[in-house]
Here is the input.
Amino acid sequence: MQGFTSFLGLLYLAMLVLAVVALVMAALFRDDAYRAADKHNKGFWLIILGIAVAVNLLVPMLFLQLAGLVATIVFFVDVRPALKQVSGGGFGRRRGGSSSDGPYGPYNGGR
Here is the structure.
């Protein structure tokens, strides 16, 4: 029976780590990326994932932890890929290009 208890402990720890990682990723994306991806706003996902983390830490009820796990999986499978596509693959930072690039291409100083 002790092996089953340690397995459940590892499972709970994995759910907690997954929820914390999703919460950090949700916090790192810009707010306008959520609107551009046509997902709920950033505050919604921060609240949902924050509740998932709190439930995993404070409430030892498997049903509530599974609800948090579902929200975390939805974020990783649906929201995160859409946010990465809209924001260019990062957490709100630009990749590639020059520092003189404008919103419609490179700025050449009116030449």
In short: The radius of gyration is 19 Å. The beta strands are 101-102, 105-106. The mean pLDDT is 83.
